[in-house]
Specification:
Number of domains of chain B: 2
Shape of chain A: globular
Helix content of chain B: over 70%
Oligomer: heterodimer
Distance between the termini of chain B: 21 Å
CATH class of the largest domain in chain B: Mainly Alpha
CATH superfamily of the largest domain in chain B: MetI-like
Strand order of the largest sheet of chain A: 6-7-8-3-9-10
CATH topology of the largest domain in chain B: MetI-like fold
Number of strands of chain B: 0
CATH topology of one domain in chain A: Rossmann fold
Helix content of chain A: 25-40%
Order of helices and strands of chain A: EEEHEEEHHHHEHEHEEHH
Structural class of chain B: mainly alpha
Largest sheet of chain A: 6 strands, mixed
CATH architecture of the largest domain in chain B: Orthogonal Bundle
Distance between the termini of chain A: 54 Å
């Protein structure tokens, strides 16, 4: 039973239509496996189709060819076992902090008292108990991300998908959020797919790093990260092993970034 | 040396200065408002008394005021003023509420359904291109001289404005927010109720501000064309008797009503939109 991977993408191709009606390929012959409780990171050059992988797992997108399986079954619609943290602010601005956090349980039919009790517990865990009646616009970027984490974790997702969730934060806040995320994940042990263009972030957090090629994206190489846990993300970047593996992966990623950049320059000129 | 040196930069001093500046600014605003009003009314009155303008056609503030007092204390030639005002308000309010409720429902329904939106888009554009007031005689023929013909005109004036805004509001709802709600477990109806409608709300409110004025226009134009009661009828009768003061008095009443409605609407909106960010004030 433990052999069934949490997420499986088998030779997936995803095409989509550009606004002027041309068919573009975002993913080509893409395969990836995430075991239960595993933290996988996906890195690749900007605009290569990284986020597409996540949307295929949620069921918001359908593969054009190949197969996507979640917990051993095919993906049909939006799976309740999935949680998603977005790059942009996806909180509901007209709801205060606690009403944002209870949204998931209330949508899913949990009783009101229980939902609010759970929400208070999650807000305590992310250190926002004092701010439950504030609205998102009154919070800092880091605090808003904490609300987003509480909003996602309260649903107890078995699969956690994260689409460059901390890319809009400043460096110090980001390091704090990394530790916070690892702490929450340690307790919940969801299978994670974390998409980012920041290689150091990927190595610091993940068990496994997938390097993608410049679009159409396919897997270029996979690296196991054997750094011990629990990790302190702020310190780990000075660790010898960390530096060694990050050099090794960067060699691999560099050429793809160059391909992507030269293409962008071509479009620009 | 004309440089003003402000050496006290403690928080209290800065706040006190900001407060003083704000209240002196407020004072300036009110002063100029009243000044302009007095200047306008004064020169009108003066011009009428000195014979610069014909008081028979342009009336004068004092004549309008006397006519208002007369209407309030003795009633109009067509019965008590309050009854006319009430009739116009009743028509406007019925038109406003029915028009905005249907506008919001239709806007959200079509905003959520692309096929229906594309199918109906043509007809909505067609109907919307009709200048609304030309419908007044048609509605009078269909619904008669009573309440219904004015409510119908008010309704069409309000409906399209609210509809267009609700529709746009739904279309502008943030994609990430919608995806977030779906993944958190929202069903389609929960999505509509807790994400689509609240995010369209600011658009809808913006349209309600304008459309109450439109509702009053609808009612009054309807009354021009044919009615037994209402402010529009008073204007129409004043016109028939060359009573300029009466016409302006009726316009004044409509102005006051629209202004009060605007304040109420703003208060309601502020109550609903507490979550909106407020800009910080620059202390300089």
């Amino acid at each position: 039973m433990t052999d069934t991977p949490a997420i499986e993408l088998r030779n997936v191709t995803r095409q989509f239509l550009s606004p002027d009606g041309r068919s573009l390929v975002a993913l080509r012959d893409f395969s990836m496996t995430v075991a239960k409780g595993e933290f996988a990171a996906v890195v690749g050059p900007t605009g290569c189709g990284k986020s597409t992988t996540l949307n295929l797992v949620t069921g918001l997108f359908k593969p054009s060819a190949g197969e996507v399986r979640v917990m051993g079954g095919p993906v049909t619609g939006i799976d309740k076992r999935i949680g998603f943290v977005f790059q942009t602010d996806a909180l509901f601005p007209w709801r205060n902090v606690i009403d944002n956090v209870v949204a998931g349980p209330l949508f899913r039919g949990v009783a009101k008292d229980k939902a609010y009790a759970d929400a208070r517990e999650w807000l305590a865990r992310v250190g926002l108990s004092k701010f439950e009646s504030l609205h998102p616009h009154q919070l800092s970027g880091g605090m808003r991300k904490r609300v987003a984490l509480a909003q996602t974790f309260i649903n107890k997702p078995e699969i956690l998908l994260m689409d460059e969730p901390f890319s809009a934060l400043d460096v110090q806040t980001r390091a704090t959020m990394h530790n916070e995320l690892l702490k929450l994940w340690q307790d919940n042990r969801a299978s994670v797919v974390f998409v980012t263009h920041d290689l150091e972030e990927a190595i610091a957090l993940a068990d496994k790093v997938y390097v993608l090629t410049a679009g159409p994206a396919t897997v270029k190489s996979v690296y196991e990260i054997k750094l011990p846990r629990p990790r302190n993300v702020a310190d780990i970047r000075y660790d010898k092993d960390f530096i060694a593996i990050s050099k090794q992966i960067w060699e691999d990623l560099k050429s793809e970034v160059q391909v992507a950049q030269s293409r962008q320059n071509k479009v620009a000129s | 040396m004309s440089t003003i040196i402000i050496d006290d930069n403690s928080a209290e001093a800065v706040e006190a200065r900001a407060k003083a500046m704000k209240s002196s600014y407020q004072f300036k605003v009110y002063f100029w408002r009243i000044f302009i009003l007095v200047l306008f009314l004064g020169s009108w009155e003066l011009a009428a008394r000195l014979g610069q303008i014909d008081p028979f056609r342009y009336a004068s503030p004092s004549a309008i005021w006397l006519r208002l007092i007369e209407w309030i204390t003795e009633g109009t030639s067509e019965g008590p003023l309050w009854y006319h005002l009430w009739v116009t308000m009743e028509e406007s309010l019925l038109g406003f509420f029915s028009g905005s409720i249907f506008g919001v429902i239709a806007g959200i329904a079509l905003g959520r359904n692309r096929l229906a939106a594309d199918v109906f888009a043509l007809y909505i554009k067609l109907i919307n291109s009709i200048p609304r007031v030309v419908l007044a005689p048609i509605f009078t023929v269909i619904f008669g001289l009573g309440l219904m013909s004015k409510v119908a005109l008010s309704f069409v004036m309000v409906f399209f404005v609210v509809f267009a805004n609700a529709f746009q509001g739904v279309r502008e709802a943030d994609k990430a927010m919608i995806a977030n709600a779906r993944i958190l477990g929202a069903s389609e109806s929960q999505l509509t109720r807790s994400v689509i409608i609240p995010s369209a709300m600011s658009w809808i409110f913006a349209s309600l501000h304008v459309s109450f004025g439109f509702a009053i226009i609808g009612a009054i134009v309807g009354e021009f064309v044919g009615a037994r009661y209402g402010i529009g009828l008073l204007i129409s009768i004043a016109k028939g008797t060359f009573d300029a003061a009466g016409m302006f008095a009726a316009i004044f009443i409509v102005m006051i009503v629209a202004l009060v409605a605007e304040y109420i609407m703003t208060a309601v909106e502020n109550r609903f939109a507490k979550w909106k960010p407020q800009a910080a004030v620059d202390t300089q």
